[in-house]
Amino acid sequence: MKRILPLLLSLFIVGNIFGQWSSLTNPYPRCYAKPVVFNGKIYFNDGYKTLATKIRHVEMVVFDPESESFDTISKPLHANHPAMAVTAKGIYQFGGFDLKGDELTDRSFLFDGENWTEIAPMPEKAPFFANNGIQVGSKIIIQAGAILRDTAFTEQSVVTTNHIYIYDETTNEWSIDSLSMPRILVGMATDGENVVFAGGKNEDGITDVVDIYNVNEKTWTTTHLSSARASVEVAYLNGKFYFCGGDFTGYAKSSD
Questions:
Q1: Which of 150, 147, 151, 149 minimizes the C-alpha distance to 160?
Q2: Residue 12 pairs with which residues in a beta bridge?
Q3: How many CA atoms does the CB half-sphere of 71 hold within 13 Å?
Q4: Which residues on adjacent β-strands are paired with residue 126?
Q5: Span 55-69, average pLDDT
Q6: SS3 (DSSP) at 117
Q7: Less packed terminus of the chain by CB within 10 Å, N or C?
Q8: CA–CA distance, 147 with 238 (Å, rounded to integer)
Q9: Is 40 buried (19+), middle (13-18) or exposed (0-12) by CB count in 10 A?
Q10: What is the per-residue pLDDT across 118-129, written as a single tens digit (0 to 9) for each?
Q11: Mean residue pLDDT across the chain
Q12: CB neighbours (10 Å) of residue 152?
């Protein structure tokens, strides 16, 4: 399976309302770091210092926009490719690769801004190739993407899955539901009631399928993109879902 690898960034780029750009040097450059925003600060998860050597960072980086400063915080489990989510309670980290054991983990944690608390483990061990979790009410929705037979990252290693995981932060319990077809590189967004899972790629190729999950009713509907694509970006605004770009077969970029 061909893989698209993110670049290792050493600069933190900021755009302001006047259309100008400025840059700040990140003293902790990394790739595969998923940023989330909590209490006015930006948190970057674990990642690799270099792709070639797979030297790992084992701390979370915190950027304070007011002081324009970087800091790090320790974590109970250093994981790559976890699913992250933010609610009023704090920052969630779900699963991923245990960087110490170099294996998949189902362990999950909540960071409240000061302390980490381990919560209920995920129902399966699965890596998350693109998406963070999406909050709808008290639920956090995560699209699994794939299960790995091993960590060699070969075409034979990856098996796509149709599972989505639903975490209820009021009960600290998990449930599993299923997309209409297994796939990775899925675009996700929510209108506060429905979650869309757009496009993606599996062993049969790239798909135009869009699955729509109503969180309150626990029901599914299905529609289609204008063309098949993976890694499509999705946003919701003023009653409409917007689907932008993506990869066609061969990873040619789309401007639609």
A1: 147
A2: 24
A3: 8
A4: none
A5: 82
A6: strand
A7: C
A8: 36
A9: exposed
A10: 999 999 887 665
A11: 82
A12: 10
- Taking the model in full, what pTM does it have? 0.84
Helix (H, G, I), strand (E, B) or coil at 208: coil
What is the share, in percent, of the chain residues with pLDDT greater than 90? 48
Contact 202, 182 (CB under 8 A): yes
Amino acid at 66: E
Extract the tokens encoding 38: 């909590």
Distance CA 60, CA 234 (A): 27
Under 8 Å between Cβ of 161 and 177: no
Joined together, the tokens standing for residue 168 give 């209820």
pLDDT at residue 55 tops 70:
no
What is the separation of C-alpha 185 from the centre of its chain, rounded to a whole number of angstroms? Answer: 10
Whether pLDDT at 256 is above 70: no
Short-list 248, 12, 39, 234, CA closest to 131: 234
Residues in the chain: 256
Q: Which helix (H) or strand (E) holds 244?
A: strand 240-244
Per the DSSP assignment, residues forming a β-bridge with 136 are 139
9 has a pLDDT exceeding 50: no
Tell me the CB-side half-sphere exposure of residue 184, using CA atoms within 13 A: 19
Summarised one tens digit per residue, pLDDT across range 163-176 is: 999 999 999 999 99
Q: Which residues contact 247 (CB under 8 A, 6 or more apart)?
A: 4, 185, 201, 206, 229, 230, 231, 253, 254
Q: Phi, psi at residue 253, to the nearest 5°?
A: -80, 145
